[in-house]
Structures are given as C-alpha cells and as structure tokens.
Amino acid sequence: MSVGFRPMREGQEDAVAAMVRQLPKDLGLPVTARLTGEGLRKAKGLVHVTVAEDSGLLLGACLWLHTFSTWRGCKGMYVVDLFVMGHARGKKIGERLLQSAAREAAGQGAEFIKLEVDVSNQGGVRFYERIGFGEHPEDKLFILESEPLKALIERKWT
Length: 158
Prior knowledge:
Blueprint: E1 3-7, H1 13-27, H2 37-42, E2 48-54, E3 57-69, E4 74-84, H3 93-107, E5 113-115, H4 122-131, H5 146-154
Parallel strand pairs: 4-5
Antiparallel strand pairs: 1-2, 2-3, 3-4
C-alpha cells in the first residue's frame, strides 16, 4: 500500500461527502450526516479537505477550516471531520492524514488545532489522546440550532 496525502481535487466532492456520511454509521450513532458534494462545492474557500489515497482510491479525508483564538492571539485549525475507510484503519492513515492537514494549516499560519469528538466515540477519543490532544475543562461547547437560531435572528428589540 502506497498512500499519498494531498488536498482534495475538484470533482472529488461527492466521494468525500459519501465518506463523511459513512462516519456516523461506522460509529453506530443515531444521526445522519447531511453533507453532500454540492455542499462541499458551495463551501469552497471555507472548508479545506485533505485526502488520503492509494492508486486513485480515496481512503480517508480530513475536513478542516481556519479559526482564531483571542485567548491565544493566533490563528488555528479546526478539524470538522476526520474519516478513514474501515478497511484502511489501523495503518496510521488517520494520524498521517491529520499530520498532512496540519502541515498545510501551519503553512498558512495556524499555531493550534481544535476539534470535537462525539462522547460515544471512545476509539476517536483514544486516537486523539494518543496523538497528544487534551480536554480543556474550562471550555464548554454550545450550539444554537434551528428554531432557537431563527428566534435570535428574528428577535425585535424594544
């Protein structure tokens, strides 16, 4: 196996989206990833995608974007998703994929990486801890979705 790592090429958006949609299935999560190739095409310039491939076959993808930390005073990398096909796991492809994406982000000024892992994904937790990631107990994730988001947007102030 001769695995290469590089930015996603135009025309691979549908294949990458299909891999991301496989992630919750592989983890047994009761959610459905809604990413489509069209969604990736629309996010061009915002979402960066680094892929792992062997002989033209995509084995994995790391979707990431730039972030900024006022506390650190610097640019960072936010990993949205990291996925390796089941048959390619256990061969350090995920770690090398993250390394390749991190090199690209660092080349663009990133000085840290931030990400989230589903609490039921203990394999993912172990993977990131093995690399050196740690939890930050002073941070708590908040998300405003759907109806509460709509209510905020439409709120009239008196």
